Amino acid sequence: MSRLFPIASSSSGNCTYIGHGKDGILVDAGISCKGIADALSLGAVDPKTLGGIFITHEHTDHIQGLRVFVKKYQVPVFASRLTANALTAEIPEIEDHIHIVEGDVAVGDMTIHRFATSHDCEGSSGYVISLPDGKKCAVCTDLGFVSEEVHAALTGCAAVLFESNHDVAMLQKGSYPPHLKTRILSDKGHLSNTACAKELQRLVESGTTRIVLGHLSRENNLPEIAKSSATAALMDKGLIEDEDYTLYIAPPKNGKAIIF
Ligand SMILES: [Zn+2]
Ligand SMILES: [Zn+2]
């Protein structure tokens, strides 16, 4: 039995726990150290037992709590070479804890595979976690579009935490300045509800049964809109919620663990 626990998910902070038996990791540490530790304690996870923190990229909403968490609990940090360089420059105090992800990384009985995402950050990543029962899950947020590499990585995952950042019409009509709208909508921005839903059609058809929509914009999205965009697209393929798949929305904070 494995757990995917979206502790926090929004442009204010992202952090996800994935665990199986005694082994567990975090993807990102974008809320306070205390916030992460408190959430882990709800699931009876001792932060000191974490096998690693896998960083997707160095934007503040993904690393805000990293410095304090690593110093306090001495957990190794994994990232792509370019993200590792950025982390070392930004948080020199944790340099000795940073490891560059080259190939797959084994953490206890789990194996973590990095894949590249397209975002306005060089070397940004998503991660697929292979669990000892043969299942896989993935965390994939902060991407402008779904590349073939992303699709190949997510295919076959039982559970996927996937970005459903914005409703395009809400973003276009909203109050963001033009340069920010352009950035979000670009190939190096964030994934819209529509683009997310389109990929979900392919993923559920290939066996994904647990979907967690994450990194929803507070300004340019609503949980109901993100959800209906996904369920409508899946319905078009004849896929029924709670029969063929289960769908959750990762809240900005106080998320709940999903068992798969
Ligand atoms: Zn982000
Ligand atoms: Zn980002």
Explain what the structure shows.
The chain is α/β, with parallel strands linked by helices and 260 residues long. The protein has a single domain (2-259), classed as Ribonuclease Z/Hydroxyacylglutathione hydrolase-like (Metallo-beta-lactamase, Chain A). Helix content is 31%, strand content 26%. The protein contains 9 helices and 14 strands. The protein has helices spanning 33-42, 60-63, 66-73, 81-90, 148-154, 168-173, 178-185, 193-205, 223-236; strands at 2-10, 13-20, 23-27, 53-54, 77-79, 98-100, 105-107, 110-116, 125-130, 136-140, 159-163, 210-214, 246-249, 258-259. The strands form 2 sheets. It has a 7-stranded mixed β-sheet with strand order 6-5-4-3-2-1-14. A 7-stranded mixed β-sheet has the order 7-8-9-10-11-12-13. It is globular and about 50 Å long. The model has no long low-confidence stretch (mean pLDDT 97). One zinc ion (ZN) is lined by residues 57, 59, 119, 121, 142.
